[in-house]
Amino acid sequence: MLVLRTDRQFADLVQLAKAQQVPVHLEPQPAFDRLVPGGRHQGVIAFIAAKSYSSTEDILQRATERDEPPFLVLLDGVEDPHNLGAVLRTAEAAGVHGVFIPERRAVGLTSVVAKVSAGALDHIPVSRVGNLVRLIEDLKKVGVWVYAVEPSAQKLVTQINLSGPVALVFGGEGQGVRPGVLQQCDDRVSIPMKGKVESLNVSAAVAVALFEAVRQRGESGSRKKTPTES
Predict the structure, then answer these.
(1) Residue 29's pLDDT is what?
(2) Beta-carbon-side half-sphere exposure of residue 53 (alpha carbons within 13 Å)
(3) Range 175-181, long-range pairs (CB < 8 A, 24+ positions)
(4) How far is CA 83 from its chain centroid?
(5) Which regions of the chain are under pLDDT 70?
(6) Per-residue pLDDT at 163
């Protein structure tokens, strides 16, 4: 739910939303005018997800039921619904067990996301978490190796073992993966780039990295190997 303020006439509504664990965000007037052009929003806009969110436990259980090492995607601040929809389509095609998105400063499961995913949203679980750093800590405790995909990384995504339990972290359209999230990851990797541009759009980067994992996991089957640096 987006609100102009949390005081006065908005206070009761904000308290009710928080009691139901609905994320509440403060936004300036121009944001409301952009989201509801010509409409009478009265300072409050609510977004309803196109699909229910899954829990971390549900996603890890999905990997167990398939007898496969966890294969996860974490998105740090993707705000464009077209990008998220494209990522979900690619992730589902690659056999990813689940995608994690943050509650704040990121797009949720909107109707646009569902449309761009071309049906993939119906088949891949998405979890919305309050703290990506804590999520990474929890994943590492259960043996998942977490790699941030960053253009500045010296190690290439083709040089690491992606056939075991692994999570790949991708940054948003602006600042990429945030420093605090980067620090918590096991390592950083980059995509081989031969041209003049320094980075790819997030949905393109996801496609390249995930299908390198598909190649490796296809070769090794479901063997639960520990990722290494070579």
Answers:
(1) 85
(2) 18
(3) 175/77, 176/76, 176/150, 176/151, 177/76, 177/148, 177/149, 177/150, 178/76, 178/77, 180/133, 181/76, 181/132, 181/133, 181/136, 181/148
(4) 11
(5) 219-230
(6) 94
User: What's the pLDDT tens digit per position in 69-96?
Assistant: 999 999 998 999 999 999 999 999 999 9
Please, are residues 63 and 70 in contact by the beta-carbon 8 Å criterion? yes
Structure tokens at 144: 């998942």
pTM of the model as a whole? 0.77
**Per-residue pLDDT tens digits for 129-153:** 989 999 999 999 999 999 999 998 9
CA distances from 132 to 28, 78, 135 (A): 25, 13, 5
What pLDDT score does 165 carry? 97
Angstrom CA distances, 46 to 12, 80, 85, 89, stand at: 15, 18, 20, 25
d(CA 91, CA 203): 10
According to the model, what pLDDT value does residue 217 have?
A: 93
In the structure encoding, which two tokens stand for residue 110, read together?
């909107």
- The DSSP symbol for 99 reads E
- Residues with Cβ within 8 Å of 21's Cβ and at least 6 positions away in sequence, in order, are none
What domains sit in the chain, N to C, each tagged with a CATH number?
2-45 (no CATH), 56-220 (3.40.1280.10)
Category of 114 on φ-ψ map: left (φ > 0), alpha (ψ -120 to 50) or beta = alpha
What whole-number distance in Å separates Cα of residue 125 and Cα of residue 97?
A: 7
The pLDDT score that the predictor gives to residue 224 is: 44
List for the chain the helix, strand, coil content (%; round to 5).
40, 15, 45
